[in-house]
Write a structure and sequence with these properties.
- This protein has 277 residues and is an alpha/beta fold.
- 53% of the residues lie in helices and 19% in strands.
- Helix 3 packs parallel to helix 5 and helix 5 packs parallel to helix 7.
- It is globular and about 60 Å long.
- Bound molecules: ligand C2E and calcium ion (CA) (3 copies).
- One calcium ion binds next to strand 6.
- It comes from Pseudoalteromonas citrea.
Length: 277
């Protein structure tokens, strides 16, 4: 038994060692990823239910020679821990805004781009100014930019966050609460922060239109959002029946594989050509 226990111990330390090594490799690669130009941005369409208005979410992608393509759910938390998300996030913002500027000029109607901003980025006191400067440098109109934040940003109880969000809204930038419904106290946030859009997490959309609980929840969220003057986006819409159901509830926008997966900028241009005049 003792022998066995020892083997177990050795097994675990070996596994832990390997884990730590893999992690160090990721960290090392991430430190150099931006200057090595390993990042790119994919865009996923967000479409109003009447098909009249179109936007796109900017989603970061990382491809490294040794590691291959690493999914954002895996590398972004590490970038946040290492503080790298501050520089990388600013790069995403700049790229997405200059890209959107070109698309806005082309489409003429109200095209918008949404950019995910981490709570770590909002810890710096001048985040609103950083965003303002990017808008100025790229020439993108402020109402064409939506900043997506999660509850983690709002859970930070500092006056600074509230002040920055108010500054952004005063500049004309839209604010969306992302992954709505997955956190703890979302309802109080809706009252306290100057939000303009609400994105229903795809966990609530997946089993529509059949699941009775999800039907009731999504219906309640959309009706509440309407009363609070929030524009609603349903995430993770994959099927026509899901979209049809969301239409009957007068959900404002939908996003998901039904329309398109996130795609590179050039492909997104083709998509625009096909779907917009
Ligand atoms: P998110 O902000 O909730 O982004 C939506 C995610 O859902 C994306 O995953 C997208 O590819 C995926 N998705 C879209 N439609 C569907 C669908 O119909 N079905 C399914 N199953 N999935 C769908 P992705 O690109 O892997 O990004 C994962 C997360 O990484 C994002 O979740 C966001 O939290 C984070 N992320 C991505 N880019 C950035 C960034 O530039 N900055 C920050 N801070 N976070 C980012
Ligand atoms: Ca998002
Ligand atoms: Ca989301
Ligand atoms: Ca998410």
């Amino acid at each position: 038994a003792k022998e066995h226990g020892r083997n177990c111990y050795q097994f675990y330390t070996a596994a832990m060692h390997e884990h730590a090594q893999a992690r160090r490799q990721l960290e090392g690669a991430l430190h150099k990823a931006l200057s090595n130009q390993e990042f790119s941005i994919f865009y996923q369409p967000i479409i109003s239910v009447d098909g009249q208005h179109i936007g796109s979410e900017a989603l970061l992608r990382w491809h490294n020679k040794e590691l291959g393509s690493v999914p954002p759910d895996k590398f972004i938390p590490i970038c946040e821990e290492l503080g790298l998300i501050i520089t990388i996030g600013e790069w995403v913002l700049y790229q997405a805004c200059s890209q959107a500027k070109a698309w806005c000029d082309r489409i003429q109607q109200s095209f918008f781009v949404t950019v995910n901003v981490s709570s770590i980025q909002f810890q710096r006191a001048d985040m609103a100014q950083v965003i303002g400067r990017v808008l100025q440098e790229t020439g993108l109109a402020s109402h064409c930019l939506t900043i997506e934040i999660t509850e983690t940003v709002l859970a930070d109880n500092s006056q600074n966050i509230l002040h920055q969000l108010k500054t952004l809204r005063a500049m004309g930038v839209e604010l969306a609460i992302d992954d709505f419904g997955t956190g703890y106290s979302s309802l109080s946030y809706l009252k306290r922060f100057p939000l303009s859009k609400l994105k229903i997490d795809r966990a609530f959309i997946r089993d529509l239109p059949d699941d009775l609980e999800d039907r009731a929840l999504v219906k309640a969220i959309i009706s509440m959002a309407g009363n609070l003057n929030l524009t609603v986006v349903a995430e993770g819409v994959e099927t026509q029946p899901q979209l049809d159901f969301l239409r009957t509830l007068q959900c404002d926008y939908s996003q998901g594989y039904l329309h398109s997966k996130p795609i590179p900028a050039l492909e997104f241009e083709d998509w625009l050509t096909e779907h917009v005049v």
